[in-house]
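Quick illustration, no need to memorize.
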Amino acid sequence: MPTDPAGPPIGNILLVGCGKMGGALLGGWIEQGIAPQNITIIEPNETALPGAMPAEIGVCAALDELSDDYRPQTVLFAVKPQIMADVAPPYARFADGAVFVSIAAGKTITNFEEMLGSDAAIIRIMPNTPAAIRRGISVACANASVSDAARDRVSCMLGAVGELAWIEDENLMDAVTAVSGSGPAYVFLLAECMAAAGIKAGLPEELAIALARATVSGSGELIRQSVETVGTLRQNVTSPGGTTEAALGVLMADDGLQKLMDTAIAAAAKRSEELAS
């Protein structure tokens, strides 16, 4: 069984779906040093596959193309939650020996136990798109059938694309999805809105976009590297009676950004909960 240089034995990985998130995970595994010949992809859409990947990686358009004696240690579902009920059930053939991992929003461990068997080892994970640059954060929750070895293996696999936190209360996953799973879109929207406001204030479009992108990405890197709280970082930029304070008076008003964010997070969490049905 292959071993990652910095982690536990990994074994055979079966990646079901290779869209943006599946591709990000695949890239992280390759960079981490997981043996390509131990990775197999099930992806019916050939155009979804990464343009350049090791030739040793197995690619199949459908499950029935795998050999009868193929045995994965990990089956990772990276398909949309809306089609999971059609995709997942046939993989129950691997329930004896494999851990099933899902990164689909909203789909609960109970959903997968119904599709794959009540004794199946299942881990539900919510990653986010910065995994594409190995700066993601994922949150994982496992059922009682998952062994410590399987947890370690999956921790190593997800660690290839960023940070990983484990929780015991699956009910928290809807809020996790709303905050970090969907969260990158909120940050991208912030950059869009800043650029649009800059254009309205008279800046050339190209300059406004460049300023917004660099400011958002640079501030994010400052958060990552700083030991100070984000509140302190905000205060460090805010001079009494200055321009920043004038802007924050709007953003921090009772009907400002916090109220909008509370409403947005609640809407995303509700939708995550609805996807379970």
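Strands lie at 13-16, 39-42, 58-60, 74-77, 99-102, 121-126, 136-142, 162-166.
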